[in-house]
Model the fold of this input.
Amino acid sequence: MDSTTPEALAGMRETASPATLPADTLKADILWHVLYSLGRDNERPDRQTVFRALALALRDRLVEKWIASQRAIYAKSSKRVYYLSLEFLPGPFLRQNLIALGLEKEARDALTELGFTLDDVAGEEWEPGLGNGGLGRLASCYLDSMAALRLPAYGYGIRYAFGIFHQLIRDGQQVERADNWLRGGQHWEFERTHYMHPVRFYGSVREWVDEQGRLRHTLEGGSTVMAMACDMFIPGYRNDYVLNMRLWAAKSSREFEFSFFNTGDYIGAVEKKIRDENISMVLYPNDEAPEGKELRLKQQFFLVSATMQDIVRRFRKKGVAWDQFPRKNVIHLNETHPAVAIPELMRLLVDEELLPWEEAWYICVRTFAYTNHTVLPEALEVWPEELFRKVLPRHLQIIYEINRRFLHDVRRQFPHDPGLLARVSLIHEGEQRFVRMSHLAIVGSFSVNGVSAHHSNIIKESIFNEFYKIFPERFNNKTNGITPRRWLRQCNPTLAWLITEHIGTEWLTDLEQLKKLEPYAESAGFQKAWMEVRLRNKQKLAEYIHAKNGITILPESLYDVHVKRFHEYKRQLLNILHVITLYNRIRRDPDAGIVPRTFIFGGKAAPGYYMAKHIIQLINAVGYTINTDPRVGDMLKVVFLQNYCVTLAERIMPATDLSEQISTAGMEASGTGNMKFALNGAITIGTHDGANIEMLEHVGDENLFLFGLLSHEVEDLRRQGYNPRTFYETDSELREVLDMISGGYFSPGDPHMFRDIVESLLNHGDRYMVLADFRSYAYRQQDAARAYLDQPGWARRSMLNTARMGFFSSDRSMGEYARDIWGVEGV
Ligand code: D6G
Done:
């Protein structure tokens, strides 16, 4: 019988429910969805249609497991974890879901029968870019691990219609294009039209006294938008457990449309609808620099208000008293972006549930936990008081009351330090007043954690030192981690296979098992196999680069990779200065014995961040000069891969030899790219910063190239008066490089083009200490090149990096959060 006829499909589907479907029905399921869900002819479906149908077939399987998981959480009456984040960066779902469900082989077979390969079909997926970078990607690794550990958890965020912009490089410059990720359909999600919560902004607060003589506060007027839940499923690795990431989409509220209609203003009603729905329209593309815009504050409250209503709705089902709330719920704030949840819970408890303030506050500070992700002063979020009052008038009042009581306690605890009050106040006083969101988050949470040991110390010793003195018990460290399922098993299947062949599969859920690879590090046979896998990965990336950039690179060359957001503190500039240094050495002496290298860059710059975009342009200009200089040949190549995203990271990580983690010491809170590279066998060249320091402790200093100032040296130097010019004057190689840039060597058509970059270094203080670290970086780069010449030695180092990355699994991080902060266990 023809297997595409409705009768045949229905017959095959009737044989079992999706969770128990025998694998060979996957093909029938795909064809069924092509016809009935997508409305296409299933005789010869195209690749995109097959991808979508496969996604739907997998969603069928996921939803059953999700319902079973939800039932189990209800049955156990578990304490729930709510992970609130303005950003999630899940990456493509297809392979991840296939791996978690154990259906990779079946999918391959089914697709082969349909005339496709899994690679081709997976290539049809457009990843949801609902995050800027590390913070959002971390949230997604954490959801993966929460599911792996069967935690009773939820991710809550916003379903931006447009995620992080799509980056093109045109004439060497970044150009931004809208990321219309929903265009291809919503095959992974369920829209929950029955979970709509009203979210209210603006208006004014009316104070009144009720019959019992209580002072009451009611918000009047204002404008209401509906939040509609959209769920995406996050399966645990082969454990039948599925969590959901609930993302809110803004929908206009009917009542308000009607009020317009009643006055006959039809277009006004439509305009209002569009304005309302704008709230979830676009992700702010700024990493490490909040924008302070009204729409952004509305986004934050939109997430918080809808989520709090959802949490309370669920809590109410149990019919237990409010004082049980912290025993049943923990709300985790991923950075301060969702910190307005603290006054929102207070508002619910005090204004609506009529709890006394003290009781409400007691519940609040036992419910919230906060993770800080940055110490850059410009990245600490503050809101102009005026704007806050306009958008959230009642919340501002509540923040003032929290502050009044907090400062009262501080005054009692530290009577002899009058200046302290202003420094810890939730309100920054000055010509303009600001609400300090980090202070609110610390005061309102029972736990405050940093994301690497180094960063957590900086928090305690410097930026939040005074809070540490007030609440020492709240501060703790939880070093970041990454999921080994995506960042080894999925992105590097051949290496994963080689590992599994030798030590079994346990590492997938217990990454410390990779230690068992250590004895193989000396085996010539294993080294050879290891390097063969790596070389194949490098060949694949070379093919990709050739196809995308038209540049031919040597797979045997040292792949030196710097991919992450563009920010001056991440110092892509330092890297390119070194590239030019090597170029000059080759120009001087083509037989200088330079180890052939391919420098690969990737990353987006915030659209309004002039210097970061200018550095992208410089890199491309240098690349053009070097790649077209016949004297250089195969010795050096510089590649800028456009639109760095999770999908691209998955291609790059397995093919990297040297991983650039070179932020100015004290500025990168943790980093997680550093971990992804090392897990795939890259060797790090890096500074004493963030998680690099813990990586060094684990892999050993012979397996990581460390250089540069320590964070206290950076501070000392700054205090003593750092003069970048001294380095320019005393280091002739450096001087030559800077003179070439400012003299127009890389921009012959416009010799002044890059002058301001050099100016920022020489005449504007070189805030990120690029020149101070240049020489030690160049030396360490030489060590790296020398080490690369000794291929067996490199193989050993590479393997030991992988073998010793067990600690950096997000399963370990999540286990620590669950045990030490949240007090929850697996279901
Ligand atoms: C799933 C499973 C079902 C549960 C429901 C609860 O449909 O057993 O009752 O979720 O959803 P929430 O009310 O917790 O969002």
About this structure: Residues 15-21 have pLDDT under 50 and may be disordered.
